[in-house]
Design a protein that fits this description.
The protein is mostly helical. Helices cover about 80% and strands about 0% of the residues.
Length: about 90
């Protein structure tokens, strides 16, 4: 009886290579790659938008809030002084 040559590729290896070369697997990998690219771009643009919104808030809104607080404190101080002096206050609450 002649000795058989051992098969260099096993069944599992052949099935694995057949599946990995399948067009369905290729399309799935391509879709995953495209989705990853879109997610990366979306996160980058969202980060840029958050940076712009945050800096705009700090530059425009925070000073406005501080000034409104100062104005409220000044009005309150004027009302207290007017009540201590017994004069009718000329500043009506807004």
């Amino acid at each position: 009886m002649a000795a058989k040559k051992p098969n260099s590729e096993g069944v599992l290896s052949r099935v694995s290579s057949t599946v990995s070369e399948s067009p369905i697997v290729y399309k799935g990998k391509r879709a995953a790659s495209d989705a990853g690219f879109v997610v990366k771009k979306l996160l980058r643009s969202t980060g840029k938008a958050a940076w712009i919104a945050g800096t705009t808030f700090l530059i425009l809104v925070v000073p406005l809030i501080i000034e409104m607080d100062r104005e409220a404190q000044l009005n309150e101080l004027e009302l207290q002084q007017a009540s201590l002096l017994g004069t009718p206050s000329s500043a009506a609450p807004h």
